[in-house]
Amino acid sequence: MSDRVLAFDAIGQDFPAPGQRTNICVLDGISFEVDRGKFVAVIGPSGCGKSTLLQMAAGLLAPTRGAVHHRGRKVSGINTEVGFVPQQAQLFPWKTLAENVELPLLLRGVAAGERKERVANALGAVGLKDFEQHFPNQLSGGMQKRGSIARTLVYRPDVILMDEPFGALDAQTRMVMQSDLQTLSMEAGATVIFVTHDITEAVLLADHVVVLSQRPSRLLADIPIDLPRPRNMFESFRNPGFEAAYDAVWTEFRSQIDAGRVH
Question: Is 61 a domain residue?
Fold first, then answer.
């Protein structure tokens, strides 16, 4: 049985250009695969289509060219087997934390007793077991983000898609969340695709780093990160091999920063 969970096959995406007759090509022939239980980080310049790839995997957007396959099947509609953690927590303000986390189970018709148990387990996994009855405005930004992750974990998705989930957090909270995510993904054996602009974050979290170019975006490199786990999220330099892995990713990414300055 193949370990491949997701495959992006020659993905091309065009978007209308306001006031112009021709479209803008954002993605141009992107191909890479994600194996079961692997953590893949996707980095690239702003506007290169990183978030667009996640939307395609979730079935929220159909590619102009090429296809996304999930466990060998073409994604042609909403993909209910994947979980999506957006940049903002997006918890419903009128619902308690427990009610927010429970919502995906309600929509799937899970029985009340099982819902209660799974919500408790998900909140416990992200360190929020004592905050079930709090409303979002009673939680810090980091706690809201944990709640958003718990809401995704609770229905045990096949793949977790994360779109710069820690970008708005302060540095200290971000490192804590990175450490927590590493623990959760290792314990659950989760398959994760994680979009970020932060090279250090990508190297510390990922098994592979996919580097995209300036628009129209092409695949520059798919770099394996062979660092032992668990990794130290608070003192990156203490991880054996970190500098070499960072340099490999930075070399590819830097070429696109320089190209952007030329343009």
Answer: yes
